[in-house]
Every structure is written in C-alpha cells, then in structure tokens.
Write a structure and sequence with these properties.
Methylamine Dehydrogenase, Chain H, about 350 residues, globular, 4-stranded antiparallel beta sheet, 31 strands, mainly beta, single chain, about 0% helix
C-alpha cells in the first residue's frame, strides 16, 4: 500500500459550493457515508454555480474556479535537479527553514533563499516530515524508518519493523506520534522523549495524524477518524467511511480539517465533525494552514483549494501531476511538492 500514489480517477475537476453535513460529536458515536448519500449526485459536475467564471490553469486547461479566489503568483524551484525528484511531503519551522522529503530518502532544505540537497541518512522513502521547532523535526517512511533532526544532525531510529509510516506529528520533545500500516493492521508508535513504543489501535490503516496537545490527537485512515484522549485510541464514530481520509491539520482543539479520497473534506469544530461537499472527485492528499482562515488542500489534478474562513475557493496552480504535500509557511505564502519532484511556492 502506498498512500502517496493513490489510483487516479479520470474525472474532470469541478469545484462546487461547499455544503456542510453533520457527521457527529465526541459524545455520541456516529456513522457517515462520504459522497454516497442521496444528497450528493454521482455526476462529476455537481454543484458548480453558474456565477463562477472559468480561469485558465497552466498545464491543465480550463477549470471553473471561484471568481473571488485570491490571486496567487507561483514560482518553481529546482525543476532541473535530480536530487529533489520524487518529493512527497514538505514542512518547515518557519518561512526561512523548510524541509522536503520523498522517494529513496531524497530531501531538500530551504534556508530562506535557496533549496539545497540534504542527507537524512536513509535510502528509504520518506512519506512525511513534521516538527515542533527548528531543532526538533521528525521524518518517517517505509521499512519502519524514523529519523530525527536536533538542529545539527539527522539521527536514524531502528525499530526493527517493516511498518510503512505515513505520517508523524509532535507536540514537544517528549510527545510524538508516528502512524502507518504493517500490511494487516494500523500501527501507532508513540515517542515519550526516550524511546518509541507501539500503542494499540483498531483502525485498518492510518494515513494522517495531528493534535492540539498530548491528550487531544486525531488520526485518519481507511476506517475514518480515530482520537487519542491521553489514554487510548478510539473510533470517533461507529460505522465505515466509504473513502479513506489521507491528511489532517488544525489550528487548535476546536478547528481541525481532514481531507481524503474523491474530494473529501471534513471539519471538526470542537464538538462535532461535518463534511463539505467539494464538487470534485479528485483525491485530496494533504492539508496545511497558517491560521483558521488560511488553509490549503492539495491533491491530484488542478485546482488546489484555499479556505478563507468564509468558504473554500479553487486556486489554479502550476504544480503539474500529483500534489502530494503542502505547507502554509505563513499567511500569504504556501509551498507545494508534487509527483515530478518539483517544488512550488505560491504568494498571495
């Protein structure tokens, strides 16, 4: 199983009005069926308002993007370098220090001016990078690979497992989670500041993880949404989500976004989850934000999505092929990596 390269559905991308649907609360288990109930048409052109005028996206023709989408200027970096081919994810401690990781252990580091190749000490594919500070950064990937940056050196952790880790998140030096899949069940490993240890989870596979603190951690995967309350992982609802959820990001305990297959977008407001009818059947692989009203979601096919606090807008970009990772470094700046290994910066 390789989360970074989901099967691509050959459907035209159309952005519709995002209509919220109640999913359930923490106090009451719930079942949801994303994109399959009677309120969602099976037609790929569902919900496209006539008021939207088409905007031309480079490399992908014309898409009906919202007229009030912010103007974004895109720059492309290192497109001629083989060192950054096959990048999967991107994260930084700020606009002047950003890491990008990917296939075969390839990595790039941004210093505020240029991207340079970095050696993370592993030949294994790295699926995710995340940190708590510029001196506390984790990257995880295939064959149980976990590497850590202390501000000076990347150190490889040997777990003695073949687990493929898809995501990592931390709240501080003594609290980090790495989640993934070992071929049969989900894997959740916890870092306590001294060692990693497995924590049981009943999910089928886990692809994303994010939390507001040690006792409030969310994970997404093939079976929907899991929650860690400081003691145990439990299903945030009963039932099965029809489409896997790939990635999570939040600004705090009352504002969390989850994205996934077939355009799935879900939001936690502190008491319940609701999902948004995106009007696209393209996969959403990653989500990142700088504030509650500045959130980006990217995936297969154009356009990308931008949340302004009032609604989701479609934004055309230059990131051809699969957009596998996104990092909103600050308001007005977003970074995207794609399947061809190019790195894009959007300013707005």
């Amino acid at each position: 199983m390789n989360r970074a390269w989901p099967a691509i559905v050959g459907l035209w991308v159309l952005c519709g009005c995002f209509e919220a649907h109640e999913m359930g609360s923490m106090d009451e288990p719930f079942a949801i069926s994303v994109g399959r109930d009677a309120s969602v048409s099976s037609s790929p052109d569902v919900g496209v308002p006539d008021a939207w005028s088409p905007a031309t996206c480079a490399n992908a023709g014309s898409h009906p993007c919202a007229a009030n989408a912010p103007p974004v200027v895109w720059e492309t970096f290192n497109t001629d370098s083989s060192d950054n081919s096959g990048l999967i994810d991107i994260w930084g401690s700020g606009p002047n220090e950003i890491w990008a990781v990917g296939w075969g252990g390839r990595s790039q580091r941004w210093d505020g001016h240029t991207w340079e190749p970095a050696n993370l000490g592993t030949p294994n594919t790295l699926n995710k990078v995340f940190g708590c500070s510029s001196t506390d950064v984790w990257a995880v990937g295939e064959k149980g690979t976990i590497v850590h940056w202390d501000g000076a050196t990347w150190t490889l952790t040997e777990l003695g497992t073949t687990t493929t880790f898809f995501a990592v998140w931390c709240s501080g030096p003594q609290d980090a989670w790495a989640v993934g899949y070992d071929g049969s069940v989900a894997v959740a490993q916890h870092w306590d500041g001294g060692s990693w240890s497995a924590v049981p989870s009943e999910a089928g596979a886990l692809f994303g993880v994010w939390g507001s603190g040690p006792n409030d951690v969310w994970a997404t995967g093939s079976d929907g949404i899991e929650h860690w309350n400081g003691t145990t992982w439990w299903h945030a609802f009963d039932g099965v989500v029809e489409e896997p959820l790939q990635s999570l990001w939040g600004s705090g305990p009352g504002d969390v976004w989850a994205v996934g297959d077939y355009g799935t977008l879900a939001h936690w407001d502190g008491s319940s989850w609701s999902w948004a009818e995106s009007g696209t059947y393209e996969y959403r692989n990653a989500v990142s934000g700088s504030a509650p009203d500045d959130v980006w979601a990217v995936g297969t096919g154009e356009p990308s999505f931008h949340w302004t606090g009032a609604g989701w807008n479609c934004v055309c970009d230059n990131a051809e092929d699969i957009r596998s990772g996104v990092f909103a470094s600050q308001r007005g700046e977003v970074w995207v990596v794609n399947g061809r290994g190019t790195i894009h910066r959007g300013t707005y």
